[in-house]
Amino acid sequence: MKNYKVAVLAGDGIGPEITQEAIKVLKLVEERNDVSFELMPALFGACAYFETGDAFPLETKEICDSADAILKGPIGLSHEESKNIPVDKQPERGALLPMRRRYNTYANFRPVSLPKALAHFSPLKPEIIGDGIDLVIVRELVGGLYFGEKETGVNEKGLRYVRETLEYDEGQIRQILVQAFKLAQTRKKVLHNIHKSNVLKSSVLWNEILEEVATDYQDVKVINILVDAAATLLCLKPTQFDVMVMENMFGDILSDQGGGILGSLGLMPSACIGDEKAYYEPSHGSAPDIAGKNMANPYSMIGSVAMMLENSFDMADEAKNVWAAMQGVFADGYSTADLSKSDSGVKMIGTEEFGDKVVEKLRDMPKV
Ligand code: NAD
User: Fold this and answer.
1) pTM (predicted TM-score)
2) Which of 284, 299, 301, 326 to mutate to test the pocket of ligand 1 (most atoms within 8 A of CB)?
């Protein structure tokens, strides 16, 4: 039997609620397969700050260091509540970015997927969705503006100022592009390169490196699109995209738009992969507006478990079963509040009930 250690960082807001449902699924996967998961819960985010004074405490670092994979819920507080934590210790700056840096999880895969049968969840018209949306945003995760040097102060005119730097070296660019090309090779062999080279020199270098890397992947067709145009096209014609690669901040923003075209951020899981370590998290935040109400959609968190099974534990077939179990719940006409508009005919259920139904469906599936 294979034994894996999984660090479980439930996080803030809806994090604990959706993590609980993901754990139910993971426990069933354990029952159905010759595998055991040692779950190692740890504090991370605002909850960790309030308990220990540090959003990424040493104990959590040690647990994550020893884990085979990390399952992370969303972290963060509402805009107002965030003011109770010093700026540099707030969850993203104090925990999330340090974790990405610590494990060099440079490749963030964010699937944006909606089968035709679920087109009614989307705000887009059925004719735009066509046979369904199925694309992957590949986001560079440890460079760019989010990781550059920052400075604040008062300038010579007596005005408060801020300076943040956007820095990439060619190694950082090459490694994410290689991942994107490799993924494109396994899919439709088309790669949309999202950039802003008409304004940003970082994009000029990015595109230069892309041309170099492309010579090793000549079976992949590259299509270059400026990020502003890509934002529009993602709404007007999302089906033209298959694999989209972009730098850190572009990916942060466009992937939330990805959730928008599906109908909810609750449909957005993700995998953050480094050469040594990977962690899995929903693309969205802690949704303080619905936290504690049994309203959150756990699809993103359970989908992150499926990505973990496939990428970290070599369990691609069981991962497919998990996806199919979730689609099965939707196909039976159920969903959480985010996707149950009053006139849609969708039967609204809570976070826990959704998790229970996924477990029922998975239990009925043939073992791999
Ligand atoms: P958010 O993603 O938390 O929420 C945006 C909207 O989407 C809200 O209306 C929310 O209710 C809804 N939503 C998100 N996930 C959902 C789900 N699973 N089911 C149903 N509805 C869902 O964005 P925000 O409100 O701007 O940010 C809240 C906090 O999350 C902030 O502190 C932010 O910094 C943090 N954040 C953390 C991460 C992370 O942990 N990786 C990512 C993004 C934002």
Assistant:
1) 0.97
2) 284
98 CA to centre of ligand 1 in angstroms: 20
pLDDT for 159: 98
The preferred substitution site among 80, 84, 265 for testing ligand 1, maximizing ligand atoms within 8 Å of CB, is 265
How high is the pLDDT of residue 344?
76
Catalytic member of 4, 24, 106, 196: 196
CB 138 within 8 A of CB 245: yes
The CB of 137 under 6 Å from ligand 1? The reply is no
Which atom of ligand 1 is nearest the CA belonging to 259?
7
Tell me, what's the pLDDT at 345? Answer: 84
What the block records as the tokens of 46 is: 């605002």
Domains of the chain in start order, with CATH, are 1-105+274-368 (3.40.718.10), 116-140+168-263 (3.40.50)
How distant, in Å, are the alpha carbons of 1, 47, 228, 246 from that of 250?
42, 28, 9, 6
Range 79-85, long-range pairs (CB < 8 A, 24+ positions) = 81/46, 81/288, 85/46, 85/49, 85/55
Please answer whether residues 141 and 278 qualify as being in contact, where contact means their C-beta atoms are separated by less than 8 angstroms.
no
Confidence of residue 208 (pLDDT cuts 50, 70, 90): very high
Can you tell me the distance from the alpha carbon of 257 to that of 284, in angstroms, rounded to the nearest whole number? 11
Q: Is the CB of 284 under 6 A from ligand 1?
A: yes
Alpha-carbon distance 78 to 41, whole Å? 24
